[in-house]
Amino acid sequence: MGKIIVAGIGPGSKEDMTPAVAAALAEADVVVGYKYYFQFIKPLVAGGCECIDTGMRRERERAEQAFELAEQGKTVVVISSGDAGIYGMAPLIYEMQEVRGERIEIEVLPGISAFQKAASLLGAPIGHDMCIISLSDLMTPWELIERRIKAAASADFVIAVYNPKSHDRYWQLYRMQELLLSERNAYTPVGYVHQAGREEQAIKVTTLGEFNPEDVDMFTVILIGNSQSYVTDGKIITPRGYYRGERQEVRGEKIGQNIMIESFLTISKELRRQDYPLGHKWALLHAIHTTADFEMENILYSDDDAVESIYNKVKDGTLKTIVTDVTMVTSGIRKGALQRLGIEAKCYLQDARVAELTKHPSLGEGQGVGLTRTQAGIRLAVEEHPDALFAFGNAPTALMELCALIRKGKAHPAGIIAAPVGFVHVRESKHGVKPFRDIPKIIVEGRKGGSNLAATLCNAILTFDDAAQLKPGRDL
User: Fold this and answer.
1) Is the pLDDT of residue 366 over 80?
2) Active site residue: 128, 194, 289, 385, which one?
3) Which residue would you say has higher pLDDT here, 230 or 399?
């Protein structure tokens, strides 16, 4: 009796083939495999070795021929690309031995799998729990593949994708992307490698939201990160531990920042939607982090690109001042961010002129009786900083005062954060802000709000350049 050696020849290059496989090929009487792979092993086989090609998708015939040759006393090497046990010939050889009832010696030699080679080229994306999913439904019903995708997505596995696409199977990868986006952040790192380890090799790093299935083919391996994965210097890193101390060295500079990062990652995963625009999502994450209230998904409103628009005014120097209705909002805005960006946060509530205005409303803009201190503060603020970012976390009357001054042409804010809290005039004050369509606005709709919310929304704007990497807390 001869022997069957099932050998994984690696992804393609001679350097990625194990010495054990090279030795087996050198001693083989016959090599059986798919013709395409012979180009990678021919320099290693002996001169008299016979190479038999059984054609594509002829795995069963390949296995039968290997047994027939081994029965003639020959040493037969059956080759698979990558590792022979991963979508390779090893399982089929053992199954056929059981059916035939023969005792031919079988040896399996492992090889470097395509996903391992791709991972090494992409950085370190498989540093934690992972799974491999083939999108080929030739032998597995799509319904089962879809269940596996959903399970892997919800369990936060790093996912390697084999057989992602072919001429006839064009939609499956789109469906996988759709399923993953229902569970994962759109900024989850994705890397893919075409012809890993071969001359045609091409490497790409993107995000789950930006990933284009049209960029890949059957010779592409895709690696999708988990909720902890991130990109640095063009490489995808998935840390080994979720909550271990060494993570701090990678993610943040301070313990407090790392706690905030972990919190944001948790919140992001639990959002009902993963396709929010980046600015709105950044504000939403801050709001939920501050309140632990996921109803913010329903009640936090922002104009299109509101966060981005206000942040750009900070960056280009046109926004220099944040005016708040109460001192608690001012206190909650991060001093490090204000200093870093050259912004001043002011509240006029304790200004000596406020008391005079509340006694004599006619001294200010308009007439009236019962002017509140916060209203008076906003009148003074508009006189000195009509183009500030105005943030309200307490007083609906102050917000209504600003609306009146805008309508009179006295104020033209760089932006408005409307988050007063309470039961009297609160909803109305927020309704009054929305008609100003040329002013970027963030509004906590309904009765909810508070100084802490107004402050954290200011912080979201001031740190928007950290949003894409989901890395909050640098100014803590």
Assistant:
1) no
2) 289
3) 399
